[in-house]
Each structure stands twice: as C-alpha cells, then as structure tokens.
C-alpha cells in the first residue's frame, strides 16, 4: 500500500503521523512510504532520516495526498486537507467529529474512509490510541495552569506547592480517567492540595489507593463541583465520553465563586469542552478571561511537547497502521472489533453513533457500512 505522511498545518502543531522508525517498520512490511518535505524537522526528524528509513520525500501536501492510498496524520484534517481526500482513500488520525460539523460534512463529501484514533478500543474498553496523548495532556495541564497562575500572566499569584508556612494551592480535577490521573500525579508531585471528582465508585477506590491520602477523592455531583470549584486555584476539566460531545459540568455561575486570577484548563476541548465558558484556543493565543477567571483551552496541548508526543503516539498507533496497511480496511476490521470501533466515516456514510447523536445526523452501523 502507498502510505502518505503530510506535514501538520494546525496552529503550532509539530507532531508527525509517523516517525522514521515507524516508516522503516511499514517499509519492512512491503509498503511504499511517501513523506512531505520537512514534516518532522521541528522535532528532530530530518528528511535524510526518512530517506534512510525507505521513504520518498515530496515537496507538497497535495503531492502526498495525490500519491497515497492511506494518509496517516495526527490532528484532524483542516478544510483544505479534507478537500484533498478522495473516494476510496483511507485516513488514519484523530478526528474529534462530535463538536465539528464542518469537518464531518467535508469528510462525508470526500468519499474517503476515516478511522479515528480516539474511538479505537481494546479488550478492557479503554482507548489505547488516545491514552498516550491523554497522559501528555494531563501532565501539561498542570504545567500550563501553574504558569498562568503567576502574576505576570494575569494570575492570582499562587504557587501550587506553597512554601513552609504558606498553604499550597488547591487543584480540582473533574474526571478521574487517564487525563485526570496524570494531572493529579503532576499536581501532587508539586505539593498542591488535590481533589479528584468522578462518578465511578470503583475508579474512586483505585485513585484512593493510588494516591494513598495525597489526593482527596469525591463523588462528582453538581453540588460537589460547585463547592470544590469555589475553593480551587486551578480547575482541570478531564471528562471524556468516547466519541461524543463533552458534557458541560463547570457552569458560568461557578466562576463567580472563584478567586479572580484563578485558572481553568479544559483538556476536553477537542470534544467541545466540559466547561460552559470554554472555546478552543491555540498556543499562539492560549488564554482568555471570563468573569476574572483565566481560561486555557488549547485544542492540541500535546503538540506543545511534540517530540515526546509523537514518539508516544507512534508506540500506540503503529501496530494498527500496519494491520490496516497489510490487510486493508475491511479485512482488518473483520478480524479486529476494536479497530472496527475506530471507523467513523466510510464512503459518505457516518458510522459512529455518538457523533450522529451530537450532530443530529443519521448513522449506519460500521458492520453494515462495510458489509461485514
């Protein structure tokens, strides 16, 4: 199969779909790799490294799309990229369609088959391709929040870890999944007072054992969010419903109870955000203020540490990329129901129910769309 890797064009996005090491593995499986010029230069992957791995280098994204049967990316395709896709082509990347009707319409119109990293599952029901980016984003959320709490950034001037004789800052984490757990690890490591809210009692028990008293766990209710956010210097939104739009849990009225200069970081922004006042931002302009509260809603947080993120993502995605390339979409998905869960769009048909519900669109079950 001819597999193309275009350079990412989203604002301040430096990750790349395949590393030279991943290219080498796919070449060893008998595939042709086509890589856009300088696609990995910003994170230390040179064109020469890709050539040594067996890839052909082309000058433009259009050339890569035109020459490829399968496109491997990181972020959701931007409108100009969606228009480069064609019927019968396979796209393997993050999509996050639920809050994005424009992208959804363009991908449906393209006739391409689109497999989303974020809805591929494993035997436990977890999301193995989303997990490494959730780990990165959870850790970055605390770094970003701590930075923007500083007075020069407009923050309230709170040091999360405090100092002897001065209380540490309070961090509220809404959601105890992968993002929330890694955010808590960072916050606890800094010495902050950490509270984690979740609605799964079994998960709360796991977190209680994991942190052994260094973080407080509470069952998540509207009242708990209201109470805990009022005491928080930093709130992390870490809620995920796979493939679906995130629920709005932190409401505008909650901001009124927070100290001016406090910070909220919405890691769920790729799925529309779990704060009522959230709107997507970029690394170029990462924050805005609502009612005196600093909002950090960068939609590609792992892109800020793109080399680490690319390596972590490739560790997870490469086996699936090889499977798709070796067997083709239909055979690969007939064999692997977890990969089948990643199918969001196939030849003009929406195949993921949660996206259809979020956007008010009809959907066709993936098995039916593929005639499995």
Notes on the protein architecture:
With 372 residues, the chain is an alpha/beta fold. It folds into 2 domains: 2-120 and 306-369, NAD(P)-binding Rossmann-like Domain (Rossmann fold), CATH 3.40.50.720; 131-299, Rossmann fold (3-Layer(aba) Sandwich). The protein contains 15 helices and 15 strands. Strand 4, helix 4 (79-82) and strand 5 form a beta-alpha-beta unit. Helix 1 packs parallel to helix 2, helix 6 packs parallel to helix 7 and helix 11 (306-327) packs across helix 12. The longest helix is centred in the C-terminal third of the chain and has 22 residues, at 306-327.
Outline of this structure?
The chain has helices spanning 20-28, 47-53, 61-67, 79-82, 101-110, 131-148, 178-190, 201-211, 222-230, 252-255, 306-327, 329-335, 337-340, 353-359, 366-369, and strands at residues 2-5, 32-36, 56-58, 70-72, 90-93, 113-116, 170-174, 193-198, 216-219, 234-237, 263-266, 287-290, 293-296, 343-346, 349-350. With 372 residues, the chain is an alpha/beta fold.
